[in-house]
Amino acid sequence: MQYSESLNNIKKNLSLLNNNAKLAIEFRETFSFPAYDEVIRDKIKGTPKVHCYRICMIALYFELVMALMRMFDNYEETASFKTLFGYLSDDFIKDFETEKKRKVKSEIQSAIIDYNKLNGSHLLGRLKRVRHNMFAHTSMNFNKKQIAKFGNAEKLLDKTLPMLNKLNLTILGKSEPFDELRVDLKPCVSNFWQSILNNS
Fold it and tell me: Which phi and psi (to 5°) does residue 37 adopt?
């Protein structure tokens, strides 16, 4: 594959990874406030809204896990870290360094190390089991021991975003404002859920 074609594929893959990361952040913030805020939980406890609240929590967490797991897919022709690292060959890196006149090999190797740690982690394994056996499919013989719990996807997202931004900065020359997105979402999420709770 020629350098220009590889670079286009890398940029496209990074763009799609960034989109999934932003989706995951949106689902996380929309889920976290009503799920973990004790005032919200106390207000809704014992009311007719409990059933729909539970449905919303499950649906939001489902989408958070699905957006996050897409980034760690192993399937060919999908936008994922595995696909991205497949394009970042030694030959490509050498040509990229020549073209851009800057060294990037150590940063890419560092991101690959970060990825391998996450890819082999129990945290990711638990979330993948949930995605495969409960969300993407309905397994008849699924052992629910050692599966992911609320909080696991958030932990994985927190470990994933710095790795993704290391690659954004290295390849694209800029980071994505993931932290700013979270900050901007918080008042919007709070207002949304408060309005639902206050309209009895």
Answer: -75, 120
